[in-house]
């Protein structure tokens, strides 16, 4: 096997990557980074890029796409709807430019939910597991059904919360769902071998709309979170560009079934 030149290891040109939850937060940051790396990007999200909170970021992302001769599109999708997932993924594969076949999936759609375990309504438990875990499964399986080549890469966003309980945060459903995502990736990696590598990316606390909502609910959480970080701060979405590009590119060609923890050292102690 001729090794890829080091200068091209992280290149993502001439391919399309699917990004769920890509209208805002982590998903949008990674989508922009993928465009800058030369990929076309298809974003799947429940919310529209025309939403007043998202429209300016989306317009900037479209400008990035144009500057890199790349294509950015959005498909409305609820990742828990199996039939809709199958048709949306199918549509993304068939509308990819012939020069840019679909080769990767970055699954970022997810929700958090805080409630003491004894008070969680079964419907809410199911909703969290449905979006975070079942959505990851449905998207991955649809991707694998449509992907006919070799060397695909699926990255499922899990969380450090798939490995530890977050001190002071009552989020049993979220943490159980993320532990499930890590184990799901191992099983898919085993089934799909060198056809599609499957890994998880497990972030620590990131400052996004998801955590802003929690901090609005309980501002004192921030101190507890910072106490757990060896770097003494929350992360920003752009700090996950390197890890995501690494996992989606040839730079990680011998990595599958692994969980890449990027948490400021939170789970190290
Ligand atoms: N923010 C953090 O501190 C943190 C830490 C670890 C892991 N994560 C994970 O990172 C991922 C992104 O989180 P974020 O902070 O960017 O959150 P966010 O709320 O800013 O973005 C999540 C996106 O997912 C979309 N989404 C939600 N439900 C959906 C559904 N059913 N179908 C399609 N799209 C749906 C939302 O519309 C939104 O655009 C999530 O999986 C989250 O669990 C976040």
TrEMBL record:
A single GO molecular-function term is: oxidoreductase activity, acting on the CH-OH group of donors, NAD or NADP as acceptor
- What's one Pfam family here? adh_short_C2
Where on the tree of life does the source sit, at the highest rank? Eukaryota
Describe the location of the Ketoreductase domain by residue ranges.
Answer: 15-195
Is the ATP-binding keyword given for this protein?
no
Question: Per its UniProt record, what Gene3D superfamilies does this chain match?
Answer: NAD(P)-binding Rossmann-like Domain (3.40.50.720)
Enumerate the UniProt keywords alphabetically: NADP, Oxidoreductase
The answer to keyword Oxidoreductase applying to this record is yes
Name the family.
Answer: Belongs to the short-chain dehydrogenases/reductases (SDR) family.
Output the PANTHER family linked to this UniProt entry. BENZIL REDUCTASE (PTHR43008), OXIDOREDUCTASE (PTHR43008:SF9)
Stated name of the protein: Ketoreductase domain-containing protein
Q: What is the lineage of its organism?
A: Eukaryota, Fungi, Dikarya, Basidiomycota, Agaricomycotina
